[in-house]
Design goal:
about 280 residues, alpha/beta, Rossmann fold, Helicase, Ruva Protein, domain 3, 2 domains, seven-stranded mixed β-sheet, two-stranded antiparallel sheet, 11 helices, about 35% helix, elongated, binds S-adenosylmethionine
Amino acid sequence: MSAIDDLPPLRDVIAAHGLSARKSLGQNFLLDLNLTAKIARAAGDLTGCDVLEVGPGPGGLTRGLLAAGARRVLAVEKDARCLPALADIAAAYPGRLQVIEGDALEIDVMAHLTPPVRIVSNLPYNVGTALLTRWLDPPEWPPFWESLTLMFQREVAERIVAKPGSSAYGRLGVLANWRSDARIVMSLPPEAFTPPPKVSSAVVRLDALPAPRFEANAKVLLPVVKAAFGQRRKMLRSSLKGFAPGIEDHLIAAGIPPTARAEEIPLEGFCALARRVAD
Ligand code: SAM
């Protein structure tokens, strides 16, 4: 029996189902159920919520989410070897765990979720930023989720919460700050995982804002920010040259010196520039 439920310890689950970790699937498992329970708590009150979990693996975090009272957990897992272990969890929590086998980048999860929805995942490192960018840039805002509580490599977590002037500040930081309140809520050393990755990790929580912090059209803002940080050491008048006619005038009208570099510009400045360019 484990610390949080009547299911076997995760080491036994992994041994019983032959779940040797695969690097190609970003498999670094959390085996300490006290830790997965702590991550579930960091996601806030889950009772009455559907929770989307990408990459449940052997189910350590899944068990934490269910024990924390999530109404339902929808778990999307690419590795079919994990399905029998997840079926055991589903049997222990009747009607509360649905598992979909497949690639989270390709599956339309909306059809399986009922609001309010929170997303909580220990993401595979190779698709983590792609999923985050997608969740932060849905067709409509506010999005289908209320909060994201996600494990990343520490360096990626720092980029998500970065502010202007820091070397970590870039596209992810601008996008996250535009539409959410983002903060690091937990730090984990490599030894917390099996097998241990080379780098430290951190859990970031992002709470969706009801409306973006400053007005801007995402279809203009995101390409502007991408172009600006694409050549982050260049002055904006150079990095954005060719982005729109008369970019130097737009920069000045937005209150941005054309000689400034992307990492000096706060979110408000990028939004003002995007509004000028859109006009
Ligand atoms: N949640 C488990 C834990 O905390 O121990 C496992 C986390 S492990 C870092 C990432 C998990 O994501 C693995 O189980 C892996 O098989 C799965 N995975 C990798 N790529 C995926 C994808 N594109 N879609 C869904 N799951 C994926």
